Amino acid sequence: MKNLILIGLAIVLITSCKEKGPERYTQNSPEINSVKNLIGNYNNKTYDTSIYSDTSKTYYNTKDISMAPDETMDYHKQREVFYSQRGFLDKDQEYEMVLTDDGKTWVNCWLEWQGTLAGNGQVINMPIHLTYQFLDGKIVREYGMWDPTTVVLALQEMEMKNSMSADEKVIQTTIDNVIKAWNTNDKELMYANLASNVVRTANGADIAKKQSDYGDIMDIYHGAFPDFKVKLDKSTIMGNKTYINWTCTGTNKGAFMGNPPTNKKIETHGFSVWMFNTEGKAVREDAFYDNLVVYEQLGYSMPMPK
User: Fold this and answer.
1) Which end of the chain is more exposed for a tag (fewer CB within 10 A), N or C?
2) Strand (E) positions, the chain?
3) Mean pLDDT by 10 residues, the chain (306 residues)
4) Cβ(25)–Cβ(98) under 8 Å?
5) Residues paired with 231 in a beta bridge
6) Beta bridge partners of 271
7) What residues are paired with 235 via a beta bridge?
8) Domains of the chain (ranges, CATH numbers)
């Protein structure tokens, strides 16, 4: 009995000597709330540095070049001109706070950013990871990592269009209208941008010699693929010619080349050379693409050669 009492006292003594340590991981803390306020400030274009320590350093997509709090705010302000609207979306936001083995407090967050380019209305979505080190309730380090490629390419494309000559801008407008006509199956818009005797070849074979022939081609694809879309991947204007890389997508809901619908999706890539007259209307398209890719995606069986 005496031994049992001694063991019990020892357990009580050991338990009482243990002090509760700081929380190592949580998704609810004052630091997380501070980061959420910082994100809200960004969305509201409120440039407040009070949450940062005076010596805080911010690194965006780099480990070598840092910005002070005022410089970080200037970084955001300078980019406002590119967007008609921008901000972090409310959906799927994730926050966590961790205390590392060396006693440092970090808040990590995973967010989705969305911006609408002021120059062309293009909407861009980007996943972004942000992490903040806190000391005494203030941010002392900020790191942000994201892939800016889509934004950079879009801004470069707008800059290129702005620097075009008058003739090039006319041709670019025609190209944009042709893509729009394809995507909306608008034959009137297509005809307005084609010469009456427009020629289209596919892999070297003539398939259109006038506007209505081109319209028939549109009917074939939109009849077989009601959601048929053409995306312009890259275009280069040289004189009265334009070289285009494009991507076509769609879902096979109608008969195609004598075959019943398969409900399968297609995605194919191709290249076209367009030629324009002095009015900027298209007089010829030479298109090159691999039909076999589409046939295989639709599940067609190719006949064996004789």
Assistant:
1) C
2) 25-26, 52-60, 83-88, 94-99, 105-117, 123-135, 138-145, 194-202, 205-208, 229-238, 241-251, 265-276, 282-289
3) 53 52 87 97 96 97 96 96 95 95 96 94 95 97 96 87 88 96 97 97 96 97 97 92 97 94 97 96 97 93 66
4) yes
5) 247
6) 245, 288
7) 244
8) 21-147 (3.10.450.50), 164-298 (3.10.450.50)
